[in-house]
Design brief:
Two copies of one chain form a homodimer.
Chain A lengths: L2 H8 L3 H9 L8 E2 L2 E2 L3 H15 L4 H10 L6 H35 L10 H7 L3
Antiparallel strand pairs in A: 1-2
Helix pairs in contact in A: 3-4
The first copy, chain A, binds a DNA duplex through helix 2 and strand 2.
Chain lengths: ~130, ~130
DNA sequence: CTACACTCTGTAGCGGCTACAGGCTCAAGA
DNA sequence: TCTTGAGCCTGTAGCCGCTACAGAGTGTAG
């Protein structure tokens, strides 16, 4: 299976697949001639990566998850810890964005209410403290 | 006023200030000897940039805002349009993050409920479609 | 046999910084 | 006066997660 087919099946860009190989997230597949020759397990692994990205994990975290995934025993606790940490970061970022959203929405809502076409947004950005 | 003092006053990293100059967001200040010599208006401008960043604007958008800020006339409408566009992007990103947060929280909540220490997070990432 | 789609490697760019290395300058203290 | 050391200078490279080339090679269908 050539890289184009893998790209189709996984939704990952061809360049991205090669990038993942370069950084060691995917093993270099065997070659048929000079072309990379992928098997179904590569497709699975790539889909795993992709879904990990969709959940906002970094490539490094995904690498860890990929290492943990086939293990037995304490796997779930370790993964859970990782996921919970990620969730905390996510929530922190979310809280920041919500603050920004609120502040900006408030400013924009005041646009057009000032005399002389004065702009509340600019006013906020330019004011002294 | 030397760059260190500006850094203190604005909370911007020294390297960042020089970076802003390099990309043309801040004008190159005059020199006293070989040292950059800033005035109060530079501090104002930098604070403007910083607050713009805190509202999530890109440096390019901030450049536009800085150009618009001292104008009269149609300023507010233009700024408002920019800010509204930014707000839309922000809300889209927020919606994405909330989806991720919900999905991940749901998965993590199921950790430890599976037999054989099987992990719901890994299960989600590895499952076929 | 030719045309053409696909793949290859290697490199550089994006945004928004941050982190050096290696040198220069300036003011205060001995 | 001389030295020390904090601060500044330039230039370059790195971070993440791709993406976009250039320029070459390969494989297959007509």
């Amino acid at each position: 299976m050539k890289i184009g087919a893998v790209s189709e099946l996984t939704g990952c860009n061809i360049e991205t697949i090669r990038y993942y190989e370069r950084i060691g997230l995917l093993a270099a597949p065997p070659r048929r001639g000079s072309y990379r020759d992928y098997g179904p397990s590569d497709v699975d692994r790539l889909r795993f990566v992709r879904r990990g990205r969709e959940l906002g994990f970094s490539l490094e975290e995904i690498g860890t998850l990929l290492d943990l995934a086939p293990q037995d025993g304490a796997t779930c606790e370790t993964v859970q810890t990782l996921a919970e940490q990620h969730l905390r970061n996510l929530r922190a970022k979310l809280a920041d964005l919500i603050k920004i959203e609120t502040a900006l929405a408030h400013l924009v809502a005041q646009c057009g209410t000032r005399p002389n076409n004065y702009c509340p947004v600019v006013e906020f950005l330019a004011r002294e403290f």
